[in-house]
Amino acid sequence: MFCVSAITQLCMVIRKQLRYNFRLYPAPGQRAALARAFGCARVVFNDAVRARESARAAGTPFPKAAELSRTLITQAKQTTERSWLGEVSAVVLQQSLRDVETAYRNFFASLKGQRKGPKLGAPRFKSRKDHRQSIRFTANARWSITESGRLSLPKIGEVRVKWSLALPCVPSSVTVIKDAAGRYFASFVIDTDPAADLERMPDTDQSVGIDLGLTHFAVLSDGTRIDSPRFLRRAEKKLKKAQRELARKQKGSKNRAKARLKVARAHAKVADARREFHHQLSTRLIRENQAVAVEDLAVKGLARTRLAKSVHDAGWAQFVGMLEDKAKRYGRTFLRVGRFEPTSQVCSTCGHPDGPKPLHVREWTCTSCGTRHDRDHNAAKNVKQAAGLAVTACGAPVRPGPVLAQRDETGSHGSPPNARVA
Description:
Blueprint: H1 6-13, E1 17-25, H2 28-58, H3 65-74, H4 90-111, E2 133-138, E3 144-145, E4 151-153, E5 157-162, E6 173-178, E7 184-191, H5 194-200, E8 207-212, E9 216-220, E10 225-227, H6 231-234, H7 236-247, H8 254-288, E11 291-295, H9 299-302, H10 308-314, H11 316-329, E12 333-337, E13 363-365, E14 372-374, H12 375-386
Parallel strand pairs: 8-11, 11-12
Antiparallel strand pairs: 1-5, 1-7, 2-6, 3-4, 4-5, 6-7, 8-9, 9-10, 13-14
Helix pairs in contact: 2-4, 3-4, 7-8, 8-11
């Protein structure tokens, strides 16, 4: 019915790395050992950043990675001030230096315009008050998974893991993460098998257009409506109470630390529920459709309006990113429709441009063919047609002519009603 794009075909033969996260439950002694490892990695990272910044201020060449490893790790262990670096695995410290090199490499690539995405700043010092910590063990660290299913880490011990599924192959590294809510996770890097991924998702002849919104999280071109869970809105009462208790605690006290942890856990619960919802929905859409089309929304712009909290609560960017990644992994076609495509103004039946409509207009009748449209369903069908996925009975593609969208449709003010969007 439609062809898989060349980009998707290329992704079929490229092995992709994925991360598998599992919850860790370290014992009290292991939590203390992990805290030492987190602290030592942070100190080495800060020492490396300080050495690079000192060289820049003095106008001398940046020290090489081998020189930093010799001075900041090997020689530092022999001093009184840094002798405690020997209490943790040397691989953790080496990986911290690699993180500095990667951060500077990305920073310079961003300055030169060689890196996609927003501009990156120079690496900054890590704070010991940051409750998010991580360390990484590579293969030469001799970490392993025991027969009893525990994660054996050097100078930390065998940590209990809650396995939710079996690893498809031997991981190349493991990253131990502690989040702001005080939870520990093991993140494994796995090389996927493209052939196995394609077998999991057999080909289908279906395609779908998706219109994302706030009242309904998504409306599909086949008329299916997916309600918005509004995880943050539903948890606001509990979050307000936790934030109020935190604000009343004395700074630096143990009670304040407990209250902070309570707030972090409440936010983590909301984020986890939203992520699980996005994963389940994106997997379902990719499994049922060979091609998926969505509108390229200006999320950053919408996040500066009065709808900011609802926009962030919906998490459109995270959901669309999951759709795109899973489409590449399973050999599906993923398409983005330009944000200036007038999907809410054009009749999906006859293609007649019926003009801009305020947001409170949820249903309208086409003045040309007389078809009664639901705003969101019509937009989803237009997204599918604009992506070139819809066909007529004779096999000809349906694609209405381009019509410029109006500022009034998105609720902007300060422009004449007929002002065109550049």
